[in-house]
Amino acid sequence: MTAYKMIRCASTMVVVTTITILGQADAQAAFHHLQGGRINRVVFTDSENGFAAEDGGRIRYTTDGGETWAFADVPPNIRANLFDIFFLDNDTNTGWVAGDQGIVLKAVASTNGQQWTEATSPSNRIKDTLVTADFDCGEHPAALQGIFMTDSTHGWVIGYDGAIAKTSNGWTTWTRPSSGLPSQIDCSDQPDGPDDLYDIHFFRDPAASTHWLNGIICGDARAYYTTSDGGATWSWNAIPSDSCPNNHYIELWHMAFTDPDDPSSDGWMAGGAGTSAGYLFRTDDGGDSWTQESCFDVLDPSVQEAHNCDYATMYDVAIMGASAQPWGIMGGYGGQTFVRLNSGGSIAGNFNACAEDCSSSCTPSGPIWVEKDTTNDGENHCGQQPPLFGVARISDTRGCVVGMFGRIATFENGASNEIVDRATTYFNRLNDAVFADADYGLAIGQNYQIFLTADGGEYWRNASAWSCGGDSAEGTGIDLSPSGTYGVAVGNAGFVAYSSNSGDSWTQLSSQASPPQIPSNLPDLNAVAFEPSSSSTTAYAVGGSGKVIKSTDSGAHWSSVTSAGSYALNGVSFLDASHGYVAGNHGTVYGTSNGGSSWSAVSVEGSPTKNFNDVVAWGTWGTDGAAAMIVGDDGVIYEKGASDRGFSRVITGLGQTENLYDVEVLSSGTYIRIGGDTGVALFRDSGTWTAPKSQTVFPLTKMAFQSATQGYAIGRNFIVEEYN
Q1: In this structure, what DSSP letter does residue 27 have?
Q2: pLDDT tens string 652-670
Q3: Between the CA of residue 50 and those of 316, 424, 598, 712, what are the distances in Å?
């Protein structure tokens, strides 16, 4: 499988969600989200009702204080990352969500936030003023990060590249201010592009004769913007640099105030430099000025010392408890959670990217921020700490944190078990999967970890018996024998594993065993498959430099066969023990009719040099081989009929350009299922191509379907989507 990269230096947590596929936009979505993904923001309107904005156009809600969650109804054409969610006066029927592609959604009346519709028409979504490659100002769909409404018709949105817009009719129409903007977010004054904007807040100021005059926006380059005239004009301000080199690059992500209506309120602002240097700033004048907080009680000061006194970027902060003695909760990129407690005294360690001696003690003048252990030791034994992007107050004693891999955890101050996970409990990338039936399945991914489900993907357990293998270790392929008894798994650096009990437990194979279980000096292995006959004991695995290895005893022992070319191979499919295809980088496709003793190159229309990521064959092998399909980078699909001598390009009519990673074939080619980057799912049913909403923007690396109407899409960030 091709490695997937997240981009944007200013925010490496952000996944590009531009999806070119719009087929069947009005069809009812048939994928249902089960696990993983990314949750960007969480809010609670009271101690029972909460809402979360997520990747893939998902909105989640709870009615029991965060203990259980369900998914709201969202239009199937909404497929982008949703980044912020806002409710007016904590009314669950008066809410809005903002996200990528200029999307603004609003809660449908009388549904308590359980049904949403698009506030702006698809043709009138919010635009930014991003500078194009030739440094001319142009309009593009805005990556919206924040939304704030002062009443049911008036409000603001902000986002990347200086995106800022306001409405006076509930987003039926919108305008970008034509004046009153500082040069930092004015396209014409910024040849390298306007600054990004991340969070926005207005103060009601109930004592004033005119409300909602004072507001604040925070963004990148340590900048925040203030208004005292309701947004008619904005002033640029910067967090003091304090002679700290990193401060120039600080991104200010989110704010929280002890009294969100009072323009002189105390408050906090969380941020960081990139992902590795966290900051927290405090104001006592409603955001007119800010000072850095640097005295924290950390779990392990030596961790800070090893990272030049830094902790990872802080993304969100929430104020908890009574306003007279508020406490708070804060989450960040490293998965750490800090809680502001009402106790003082000298503490060990601090939290300051500019400190020269970060192990020295400090004495806070008031309440202190204390780090809490958020490790999910019960199930996530590799110890990954996924980034936490959002935090929210549930009540005076309870809070909620959300983040990457679909993590949701509730926090109760002083409880015997302070932090409880409420959703995904594994934080691994998934690269491949196999299902024996609609309930029983296996998946493999990051750290060579193998996971097993027996209930259709609702719950998974770790079936691996080995150590985690390091951050660069990737399990890339897994398969079950047709009988369901034996399992094989492969990964980079020559990893091979074997199961004789349907994947319930596994043994990692070694070239040092006597006799050797695998060849020595294996390259990265990228795919593995049994041949499909009911009594099959033969499996093949492929990898770097054209490497092909073969097992004839159900995966217990492997030996090398003739290499298929010199490029890395990413896909393998056999019809029986002797006949099959392999496909790989640089347009590589080979076929064999003698179990890999020799290989013949198979022609592909146009002789492409793009990487092919998967191949699947079906039917019977004849003089010209068998029917087969290949998928690869940049959305390419090629198909070969049983009597064709080579592969021809397939045009779906959907305009896909994303890398495609997996193809599944059902009923001798009547039904095709393909998965790829940005959550793209392509279906061909009896010759007609569609692109149903997959409920995620993360790469789908495996389409495991038992029939045309039932199956699973598996992907990065522990993505598990059920199709039914």
Answers
A1: S
A2: 999 999 999 999 999 999 9
A3: 16, 18, 61, 28
Q: How far apart are CA 660 and CA 12, in angstroms?
A: 23
What is the strand order of the sheet 223-227 is part of?
197-203, 214-219, 223-227, 235-238
CA distances from 693 to 79, 97, 637, 647, 648 (A): 7, 19, 20, 29, 27
Number of C-beta neighbours around residue 603 at 10 A = 14
Report the SS3 class of residue 436.
coil
Q: What pLDDT does residue 369 have?
A: 80
Distance separating alpha carbons of residues 345 and 510, to the nearest angstrom:
55
Question: Which phi and psi angles does 457 have, rounded to 5°?
Answer: 90, 0
| Range of weakest confidence among 197-211, 275-289, 379-393 | 379-393
CA distance 521 to 147: 55
Q: Residue 175 carries which DSSP code?
A: B
Instruction: Tell me whether strands 197-203 and 164-167 are parallel, antiparallel or unpaired.
Output: unpaired
Instruction: Report the C-alpha gap between 307 and 358 in whole angstroms.
Output: 10
Name the residue among 103, 24, 88, 92 with its Cα closest to residue 57. 103
pLDDT of residue 303: 52
| Residue 376 reports pLDDT greater than 70 | no
- 408/41 Cα distance (integer angstroms): 11
β-pair partners for 401: 391, 409
Average pLDDT over the chain, rounded to whole?
87
**363 CB burial (10 A radius; 0-12, 13-18, 19+):** exposed
Structure tokens at 269: 């602002």
In the chain, what is the straight-line distance between the N-terminal and C-terminal CA atoms, in Å?
26
Query: Contact 370/339 with Cβ under 8 angstroms?
Result: yes
Q: Report the pLDDT averaged over residues 528-553.
A: 97
- How far is CA 185 from each of CA 182, 197, 434, rounded to the nearest angstrom? 6, 9, 49
- Beta carbons of 450 and 430 less than 8 angstroms apart: no
Beta strands in 65-143 (DSSP E): 70-71, 82-87, 95-99, 103-107, 116-118, 127-128, 140-141
Q: Do residues 74 and 95 lie in contact, with contact meaning Cβ atoms separated by under 8 Å?
A: no
CA 267 to chain CA centroid, Å, is 30
3-state SS assignment for residue 84: strand
Task: Output the pTM of the full model.
Answer: 0.91
Measured distance CA(711)–CA(31) in Å, rounded: 9
> What is the Cα–Cα distance from 253 to 419, expressed in whole angstroms?
24
Q: Among candidates 43, 30, 109, 212, which has minimal Cα distance to 694?
A: 30
What are the residues whose beta carbons fall under 8 Å from the beta carbon of 586, sequence distance 6 or more?
Answer: 567, 609, 610, 611
Task: Flag the least confident range among 69-73, 140-144, 613-617, 652-656.
Answer: 140-144
Tens-digit pLDDT profile for residues 85-143: 999 999 999 999 999 999 999 999 999 999 999 999 888 898 866 444 443 445 678 89
Torsion angle (degrees, nearest 10) of CA 32, 35, 40, 43: 80
Instruction: Say how far apart CA 178 and CA 159 lie, in whole Å.
Output: 17
Hey, is 128 helix, strand or coil? Answer: strand
Q: What is the pLDDT of residues 259-274, one digit of tens each?
A: 999 999 999 999 987 7
As a whole number of angstroms, the distance between CA 118 and CA 140 comes to 18
- Residue 114 token pair: 């359980």
List pLDDT tens digits, range 184-193.
887 665 556 6
* Tokens coding 351: 């939290």
Please name every residue paired with 681 in a beta bridge, in sequence order, or none if there are none: 675
> Taking the alpha carbons of 623, 626, 632, 634 in that order, is the dihedral positive or negative?
positive
CA 391 to chain CA centroid, Å, is 17
The edge-to-edge listing of strands for the beta sheet with 548-551 is 525-530, 539-543, 548-551, 559-560
Q: Locate tokens 């022992």: which residue?
A: 557
